[in-house]
Amino acid sequence: MAEEENEFEEFEQIDFLRDRHVRFFQRTLQVLPERYASLETTRLTVIFFAVSGLDVLGALEGVDRDVVIEWIYSLQVLPTEDQSNLSRCGFRGSSHIGVPHTTTGPGVAHPYDSGHVAMTYTGLCSLLILGDDLSRVNKRGCLAGLRALQLEDGSFYAVPEGSENDIRFIYCAASICYMLDDWSGMDVQKAIEYIRGSLSYDSGFGQGAGRESHGGWTYCAIASLCLMGRLEEALSQRELDRIRRWCVMRQQSGFHGRPNKPVDTCYSFWVGATLELLDAFQYTNFDRNRRFILSTQDRLVGGFAKWPDSHPDPLHAYLGLCGLSLIGEPNLRKVHPALNITQRAFQHLQQLQQAWGGAGAGSCRRQQSDPQLCL
Q: With a threshold of 0.90, does the pTM exceed it?
């Protein structure tokens, strides 16, 4: 017992190094270290981690928003004059294939140019975070590109050329439809059937039917159903209670994604946000979770790593920050658990949707008026 108390005291002395984390995300906006050069093809997602991380920290004032917004729009795959590439529209991850930089006019046909469902999701999120009004988003192209990615079983490819297809991309598709306030981009019922089929015997969700339960896939399933406004329709109360239990059991100090795996910073968000959406996060140990997350922060360059004494990276830095936000770390903005952006950015989205003439809630179930979805 004395040993546990000493460990508690040791971790309590670890400060949250806000200024170092601000500088970490500011550097991420400018350059990728050699260690992460392979992330260049998905740079839009890396930028999302950086701008959203700065938003959570309340430190967006140092970002040249206009420059970043223009760069994001330059990655939009626009319809050509003959509309022949509608099924390929969306946002690409970076300019690595050398398509001419343009933010206006018709698209430029390129045999290898197409949107990516995850990049479209993070692109739209980043625009909202930066205060853009989404007026230059080619909604018709994005939704057509999204429809072309859905398979008969309800899952989605990431790109029209074909890729893995699983529950992660259902989440991206649901988020895109929610943000654009238009669910014509997907067959919602087929997606729900795929999600239900991914529920495993132990009450977690896998990438698809018969696959191992995982904290990340469980988040994608629950968040998608919340965005659709179909959580309690798709899952019985008994199933929801068992999913809550499966998630609560993922905590050791921080959280892990699967039984018998080590704890990992990112699951403080993936599992924590799932429990928040299921109104069960309060049954976890916030102090132990906080101590673990803080043990993974890099005291020299900032950011958070997967584990203590390893290198920080943009994904774990951002999700570690979101994990701290969920447990109420002082001076951090609250995160919307289903969309994975700050509540401030979510309120901006609601204002835009109201201006568009919609209900301002984005859910495919208009009668659900609660802006917190299923909270």
A: yes
